[in-house]
Amino acid sequence: MTTENAQTAEISDQSVPAPVDVPPVGEDINLDASENYFNRELSQLQFNYRVLKQALDTTHPLINRLIFCCIFSSNMDEFFEIRVAGLRQQMKYGRGTVGVDGMQPDQVLAEISRVAHDYIHEQYDIINNVLIPELEKENIHFVRRREWTPAQAEWVRNYFEEEILPVVSPIGLDPSHPFPRLVNKSLNFIVELDGKDAFGRETGMAIVPAPRSLPRLVRLPDDVCDGGDNLVFLSSMIHAHADELFPGMEVKGCYQFRLTRNADLELEDDLEDLASALRGELLSRRFGDGVRLEVADNCPEELVQFLLREFGLTERDLYQVHGPVNLTRLMAVGSLVDRPDLTYSSFSPSIPRQIRSKESMFDAIRKRPLLLLHPYENFSPVVDLLRQAAKDPHVLAIRQTLYRTGADSEIVEALADAARRGKEVTAVIELRARFSEAENLELASRLQEAGVIVVYGVVGYKTHAKMILIVRREEGRLRRYVHLGTGNYHAGNARLYTDYSFLTCDESIGDDVNKLFQQLTGMGKALKIKKLFHAPFTLHNRLISLIEREAGLGENGRIIFKFNALTEPQVIKALYRASQAGASIDLIIRGICCLRPQVPGLSENIRVRSIIGRFLEHTRVYYFGNNGKPDVYCSSADGMERNLLSRVETAFPIEEPALIERVTEDLDTYLSDNCQSWVLQSDGSYLQNQPEEGEERLASQLVFLDRLTSKPN
């Protein structure tokens, strides 16, 4: 496999977590020592920062650079809702736990606050001083209140009176109007008032929740503008006309703020009815404990302190920002302006010739197994397989796991159609897929109405495996057709995430998948599986044993893993031991990595890189050199405790020589990337690769676009 030969450019020192001391060199390094591991929360923050840095990468189109800035905001929202909230819960209930990195929860929270403040400050600097000026040059304008022409001001007044005023509910604060319970991440305003209202009340303060039904960004009509695309924030409209919400009173100030709440769901393991319990928990998610307060930086100190007291937060949880508090909503720019020249060029995902030449997916799969790499290759063959199975009179049964899909997807329609046609259809729906719970409840109801047998997997073990099993009668016998994937059955994600789809009718794999469905839908002892690794039973142990096998080969050992995250201590220790034995190890890890690479005597043979680009890297691949006869697995599982020990996951072998060669070539492409890859250093910082002088730029995702799509970008 290709080794790294690119130069690197360091990211800003002031915006990364503080470097961690490198452990001492020596033969007797303690693999359990805390200095051998990075903190997972701080590593996740580092990933978010790498996403933010894409906003400065001029090889991305301008509007997409803005969208990267918004994705950073969305990622940070979830980070606070789940990870920070979890740490605060540990502190609140005295259940603080120390990870392998040795940091106490309060230490982690303090470092998160320091780093996150730096990152968010940089984000607003990028928005205000880089992206908005560059958008202005492209005649795309965010029109501020002070810049409104009389015609624009009149249009805004009419919009306010017709669209905003009828649905907004200002809330004066007094003994009969206590501080309202504000919805998680909603846009709100705290208003300073002077004077008395119609009842003689003089409160001096009010809260105005922005109506959630209204867009946060509105395009001004062309007839009140001098050309270009002109956008105005909902917050500006409310600011400009706040006095109309409090007739007869003076508005002394109006300041936007936003509260992020704990959005994690806590469900007991001994539930009688998971769906009912989940519905109850979803109602509380919008009003969990506060974890972060974002406030406009011009808000007076006394109002800021009032809000902090109201939400039970401290200065550490306060983020005063120079601009809109809900930057995620800027994603709407892409749909409000028609500027294809400022967005990624479109492409047509390809369909392999093997499928194009066959009318029947079953015929194509019987000829030889298929491996598809989305989004470069079309997701439609997976949908077509289900559609054909639904209509095929020889198909007797269909079973499928669903994690994130969408109630209105083509896959759901195919399953419902199959059930209506009298086939035995079973769907294992994971109701607890984070932030997809409500959608999955709706999905379950829709499928049940069509006659699909719906089960919710195993309480305490999220069903994260991606499996389809189709049973078909052929020539007097039953044949099983299987789809296994590294990603979700979601057509939208299949256009944005990189994932493998594997389609086969291999008898052993079909039997394995059938047994896994038996375990999920029925009860009994774990069944013996022939080819697949499956969590929580065999995947963890098999992964470690294969690492140890490569370690036994010494310098001939070769390991390549492609994960979204690596946190599981036993896997990390096994990799350390393999490195110490001389094995060559490359880890392609998009996000969290708790392993410390390139430490003499510990991990000097381990290299870690993160690929960040147009698509979200989501494929999971385990490659073991095996002395020139490589073993290759694709998987639904990352290298995390939850995936390997407390979820239902699968890893499936790629056995055909041509497909092994293809996956190997794909991995080689990632390892050759010299511009979209970031290399993890032993001190915890990341350096972005840059081509050497005279070397051609190689961006792995662009290589795949050129290699696999019909209309490369």
**Multimeric state:** single chain
Instruction: Give the CATH H-level superfamily of the largest domain.
Output: Polyphosphate kinase middle domain
Number of helices: 19
First-to-last CA distance: 26 Å
Q: Averaging pLDDT over every residue, what do you get?
A: 89
CATH topology of the largest domain: polyphosphate kinase like
Portion in strands? 15-25%
Low-confidence stretches: 1-7, 9-15, 19-26, 267-274
Description:
The longest helix has 33 residues. The protein has 4 domains: 88 residues, Methane Monooxygenase Hydroxylase, Chain G, domain 1, CATH 1.20.58; 186 residues, Polyphosphate kinase middle domain (polyphosphate kinase like, 2-Layer Sandwich), CATH 3.30.1840.10; 174 residues, Endonuclease, Chain A (2-Layer Sandwich); 178 residues, Endonuclease Chain A (Endonuclease, Chain A, 2-Layer Sandwich). The protein has 713 residues and is α/β, with parallel strands linked by helices. It has 19 helices and 28 strands. The radius of gyration is 27 Å and the shape is globular. The N terminus is likely disordered. The strands form 4 sheets. Strands 1, 15, 19, 20, 21, 22, 24, 25, 26, 27 and 28 form an 11-stranded mixed β-sheet that branches. Strands 11, 12, 13, 14, 16, 17, 18 and 23 form an 8-stranded mixed β-sheet that branches. Helix 15 packs parallel to helix 16.
